[in-house]
Amino acid sequence: MNPAPRRALARVVPAAALLLVATACTNDSSSSSSSPSEPASPQVSTAAAVTTSPGRTTAMNIRLTLNGHHVAATLNDNPTARDFAAQLPLTLSLRDFNQAEKIADLPRKLSTSGAPEGADQEVGDLAYYAPWNQLATYYRDAPYAAGLIPLGHMADGGAEQLATADEITIEAAP
Predict the structure, then answer these.
(1) Taking Cα atoms as reference points, which of 16, 117, 155 lies closest to residue 129?
(2) How far apart are CA 144 and CA 150, in angstroms?
(3) What is the rounded distance in angstroms from the CA atom of residue 124 to the CA atom of residue 136?
């Protein structure tokens, strides 16, 4: 099988499974959180919406600080991203790599359980480069790379801030 369809299938199947689980859980969620005497009220998220590519499910809102500017982002729902989230908050020094991404050394290796063999990255993506134990953040598109595991995506405008940043702070969204 050609690697491109295999990568596409690897992205779609987990997203479909998560969508089924989320859909099954939403019907009863409002009644279980309120008492009989209080009406159920909708919960509204104050975090900025982040657009993700098809097949990339998001699990956690985070906030990046680049050049003093806050940028909303989300982490994917995969073991590597959850392991990364467990290390937050982090402040890391960034280095430019291939005039397309900023990289930073992480304090410890992340789980690669169930991870794909590699990934194609887009502008605004956050990824883990397992061979070098590095966070990779993209301000330009980059080709497929073996050993690269998608972690999440920045909101629009984050890539412009990233292109000139020397340091990144990553924390759970308030």
Answers:
(1) 117
(2) 11
(3) 10
